[in-house]
Amino acid sequence: MKPSPFEYRAAATLREAIDLLTADPEAVVIAGGQSLMPVLAFRLAAPSMLVDLRMVPGLDTVDIGDAGVRLGALVRWRDIEDDARLAVAHPLLREAIGHVAHYQIRNRGTVGGSLAHADPAAELPGIAVACDAEITLVGAAGARTVDAREFFTGPLSTVRQSDEILTELHLPFWPTDRRWAFREFAQRQGDFALAGLALFYDEDERARVWNAHVGVIGACDRPQRLLEVEAVLNGHPIDDDLIRDAAATAARTVDPPEDIHAGAAYRRALVATLVERGLRAAAQARGA
Amino acid sequence: MRGTNRYIGSPVERIEDLRFLRGRGEFVGDLRRENMLHAAILRSPIAHGRICGLDVSAALSTPGVRAVITAAQIGPVPTIPLRLLPLPGTERFLQPVIAADRVRYVGEPVAVVLADSAALAEDGVGTIALEIEELAPVADRRASGKHDILLFEESGTNLAMNFTATIGDADAAFRAADYVRREQFKVQRSTATTMEPRGLLAEWDAAQGRMTVHGAAKVPFFNRDTLARLLGLVPTSVDLIENDVGGGFGARGEFYPEDFLIPFAARHVGHPVRWIEDRRENLMAMNQARQTDCDVEIACRRDGKIIGLRGEVFVDLGAYIRTTGLIAPRTLAQFFSGPYRVPNMRITCQSLLTNKTPTGTYRAPGRYEASFFCERLIELAARDLGIDGAEMRRRNLIGAAEMPYKLPRLEPGSPASDTECDSGDYSEPLDRCLAEFGWNEKRELQGRLIDGRYHGIAVACFIEGAGAGPKETARLDLETDGTVTVYVGSAAVGQGLETVMAQIAADTLGLPLDQVRVLHGSTTYLQEGYGAFHSRSTILGGSAVFEGAKALLEKIRAAAATRLGSAADDIELVDGRARKSDGSSASLAELAADSLRVDATFANNNTLTYAYGSSAAHVAVDPGTGRVELLDYLVVEDVGRIVNPLTLHGQAIGQIVQGLGGAFMENLVYDASGQLLTGTLADYLIPTGTDFPRIRAIALENHPSPSNPLGVKGAGEGAIIPVGGLMANAVANALASFVAMPNELPLSPARVWLMGSINRSGGSPRPAATTTIAH
Amino acid sequence: MRVSFQLNGKPVAAEIEPRTHLADCLRETLRLTGTHLGCEHGACGACTVIVDGAAVHACLMLAVQAEGRAVVTVEGLSADDALTPLQTAFRKHHALQCGFCTPGMLTTAHALLTEEPDADAERIRAVISGNLCRCTGYIPIVEAVLEARAAYRKKP
């Protein structure tokens, strides 16, 4: 299981990396390599060149401010886990990242790599979509910012052009009294989820839900929000009936794939279970 | 002797560990040679078809590629003989070492590319133009049983073998029974998944006409003889060398196509050739196992006494009969009733050819599957008859007074197939297991919904036949430094053989452990050896070492007596010196000048040992996800005699977790065209460190084996036997209010969820007693 | 391509193809074979090495990406012939059978305990869940790592 031969260049600047990609349409970007290397090992791809971003400056920072959280493309899972500020600045992100893969992979896997790889069951794309995040791409034609919900177009498929480099994920500001939950179900710890759920909502003075965001991974061909579930929740206080209604709506509105590990009916049921448990946890305590 | 042992019976830390812990193990992939070429193998991407074109010219012009070997280079393509059960008729279904004109499974070798590195060899493989005219695939045993599409047309059938196990008169018993139940069960295809994939390094010495192959395992002597025959050499011109082996579990070390192809390639090109199997190959080319289903019936008296078992078992054998391919089918039939007294039984077991990777032995072959079937039947009968599951089993266990107890007759048979349970009291581990497990208290939880999860418990019993003959060999040499070298015909596959054999030799000779060195598994050491399978190493190999050490001790005493001027019985061996009663002594190093050496053989006349035990488990089932959490698992097994409690305990825990993998997650999935869909370790799920943290094992030595001088019984495969049935019964009991019928493995979350979400009795689930326990 | 890095405290250099992953560079080029390859797709953990203090899969890192880094393999865990407390605990608890996954288990556990000497059983289990073992059932491995914690706490 050795990769096909390729050239390797560690670009010194973003500009150089873009130039290399522009000059060679068969070239691909490598950051942490935790998704790309297995693809190469199985020879599912045979790029002519790997353009490594490891020397490119400025892509490995976590910026936290009034506008939210900005994660550079080279920020590793490990960096997110270790950044105590995120416990307040974005607890949902931190909780979700705790479910990504295994110890060793968390030491190398990156924000940019995960978003660009676009596995439908991956956690970070799910958080990006659930949180109305923006993704910045820089290419020969300049920089552009894409809404996360438009970025992912299908399994392992995004709007990124082959000469573009994903440089940043921007998660909007997270109020401290927001209610939230992250839940996922995988066959073994660290496996891609058969279904996962990222949700948050705010409450008005009468404890009614507003601004509900319910995002699902693993149970659809790309991370997505369940708008009908959000509509069920908005304007009402959380109680058992509402939770049941939301769970049933979630099961009805997801469109899950079938694969060797789980059929569609099972995935629908999982989503309903996760919605129910997630809402219960969110309602009971902050930081659930 | 037992009272004076320093080592036997003690948790001796392993000798092997010192090299493994410092990265100094030597596995076959760690070896290199000057001018060595690397092999990569083109495998059929099609499950069933005729090869109509094979053009390797592009590969030959790929940089770094030195040669390509296909059937054309080999000439008449030999087939791989069966190591076990080479019954008449099987010769029709043997695997050729390479596909010449027909491919029968995805992964079958078609060409071998030799290059300067493994990556370059893979580059070469990618350029070979292989044209296959596809034939309709035989996707499963049902399609196979129609015999319309045949894997071997000239044979006229897809039925590779049909075994029947019989005792008493099953039909009469069913006519007379108070209670009868018929069920269908299914076990999925899985595989051993040794952490080290296979590998070989072959070197041909043209001047001497000698072939040396590193990477042997399990049965080096048998494979040496096979390889010699296939290469047209005499066995003394071939050496198979056993390096450290990263796991065996029955699958590693059998003679596979590569065991011919790589040595052939080395001789063909005149370079050393190394081939290291990658994980994708490992999952599609190494023996697979266990895929079985059945239609079986149980007959009982009202009091729960089983009076009959009958039915049909079907094995999805894969595309060829491999070296051990008929062991699981044979065992499925003959050991269907396990440790239970079943006076009337007739089980047939058909082995059907399919266009999938061939199958072979994997830890407790056939016994794991049979136990699942039989334990499910017993559990259902107990429930229908209103008898506690533990009590039901106690009433049916073979009694101590019935020993030796003859097991069903097998047709077609073999020299070893007339067998009987040898000794013991099967109720002892059951009682101990129930007591340690807290059966009576936990029974209160049966089927209850507690904090959102349904709880279930179950118990199962098993026997572990072991110690296949005919014999094993050992040689003990007194070295000039006073140490003893022990050569054994047994093989090491990671089980701690060096330590266990050293314990036996050191105690018998009265030597410190570090004065004994154990060398094993290579054909260079001994004339013959029989290897590591059927949990036989400690039984036969250990007994050979024991007998050899006793004989060497006598030789040492005789030599010392001559030197010190006394009778041999006046000499004692104390701390490495031969001492006379008057205090004079000679060192072993001095005595070594007399060339003291013993060759020993221990033969068991095919008398097997039967360890036996009971296991109990407690699960909690989350109906919202189908997740089954294992809250407690306990095995109690009587192994006759314990040589090393540390390694024994490790074997028990390890095999239970392996069995739990089979019960819950491992599944080799093929699609209708015969493509393997689980070709990575991200899709073929084996247990990880977080899955099963609560497992306990207790070993007893109440009833030593009467058939060997150590009193030991095989202990490497017992605890895995009941895992599938036990888990299915525990889940069934947890979900009793849904009338759950977990009759198919694995108990994947999706499958368990389905059982907990569908109500077979109509309306809402039967109300379960609800309790809440405060944490 | 040429790559230079620190290997077990000593500078090394190797001439390799860009496609060579770090594990193959260690095993085939630098002939340090303690690092094992069990899957080459980041699923088994046998090839775990420590790069700049962090445990990583050596099969999921190109050797050229190790340029200028400090790499520690199983051979680098003990300076002399004596076993380290972690290795001693593995032996005492029979935390290895065939020994193939052992180098990856040791490097992973060493990296963990160096950073988190108070890791509890649950954390240890979670961390080694990226390392597959087919022999032991993991229970003795967790016991061994738990016991080895004491030695890491003592270090300054």
Q: Can you put this structure into words, describing what you see?
A:
The complex is a heterotrimer of chains A (288), B (775) and C (156). Chain A has twelve helices and 14 strands. With 288 residues, chain A is an alpha+beta fold. In chain A, the strands form four sheets. In chain A, strands 4-5-10-6-7 form a five-stranded antiparallel β-sheet. Chain B has 775 residues and is an alpha+beta fold. Chain B contains 20 helices and 33 strands. The termini of chain C are far apart. Chains in contact: A-B, A-C, B-C. At the B-C interface, α1 and α18 of B face α2, α3, α4 and α5 of C.
Structure characteristics:
heterotrimer; A: four-stranded antiparallel beta sheet; 12 helices; 34% helix; B: alpha+beta; seven-stranded mixed beta sheet; six-stranded mixed beta sheet; 20 helices; 33 strands; globular
Main-sheet strand order of chain C equals 2-1-5-3-4
Bin the helical content of chain B: 25-40%
Beta-strand proportion of chain B: 25-35%
Strand line-up across the major sheet of chain B: 3-5-1-13-10-11-12
Helix/strand structural class of chain B? alpha+beta
N-to-C span of chain C: 39 Å
Q: Largest chain-chain contact? A: B-C, 60 and 59 residues
Radius of gyration of chain C: 15 Å
The largest sheet of chain C, given as strand count, sense and whether it forms a barrel, is:
5 strands, mixed
Please count the helical segments of chain C.
5
Overall mean pLDDT of chain C stands at 97
List the quaternary state of the chains: heterotrimer
Q: What's the mean pLDDT score of chain B?
A: 95
Low-confidence region ranges of chain C: none
Annotation, overall tally of beta strands of chain B: 33
How many beta-strand segments of chain C? Answer: 5
Percent in strands of chain C: 5-15%
Spell out the blueprint of helices and strands:
The complex is a heterotrimer of chains A (288), B (775) and C (156).
Chain A: E1 7-10, H1 14-23, E2 27-30, H2 36-41, E3 49-52, E4 62-65, E5 68-72, H3 77-82, H4 86-89, H5 91-97, H6 103-106, H7 111-117, H8 123-130, E6 134-139, E7 142-147, H9 148-151, E8 152-154, E9 157-158, E10 165-171, E11 179-185, E12 195-203, E13 209-217, E14 224-225, H10 227-233, H11 240-253, H12 264-284
Parallel strand pairs in A: 1-3, 2-3
Antiparallel strand pairs in A: 4-5, 5-10, 6-7, 6-10, 8-9, 11-12, 12-13, 13-14
Helix pairs in contact in A: 10-11, 11-12
Chain B: H1 17-20, E1 37-43, E2 49-55, H2 57-60, E3 65-69, H3 71-74, E4 102-103, E5 109-115, H4 118-127, E6 129-134, H5 141-145, E7 159-167, H6 170-176, E8 179-187, E9 190-191, E10 199-205, E11 210-216, H7 220-231, E12 238-242, H8 257-269, E13 273-276, H9 279-285, E14 288-289, E15 292-300, E16 306-318, H10 327-334, E17 345-353, H11 367-385, H12 389-396, E18 405-406, E19 409-411, E20 420-421, H13 427-437, H14 439-442, E21 449-450, E22 453-466, E23 471-478, E24 484-488, H15 497-509, E25 516-520, H16 537-564, E26 571-574, E27 577-580, E28 585-587, H17 588-591, E29 597-603, E30 609-621, E31 628-638, H18 645-664, E32 696-700, H19 723-734, H20 749-757, E33 770-771
Parallel strand pairs in B: 1-13, 11-12, 16-17, 21-33, 24-25, 31-32
Antiparallel strand pairs in B: 1-5, 2-4, 2-6, 3-5, 7-17, 7-19, 8-15, 9-14, 10-11, 10-13, 15-16, 18-20, 21-22, 22-30, 23-24, 23-29, 26-27, 27-28, 30-31
Chain C: E1 2-7, E2 10-15, H1 22-29, E3 48-51, E4 54-57, E5 70-72, H2 85-92, H3 102-115, H4 121-128, H5 139-154
Parallel strand pairs in C: 1-5
Antiparallel strand pairs in C: 1-2, 3-4, 3-5
Helix pairs in contact in C: 2-5, 3-5
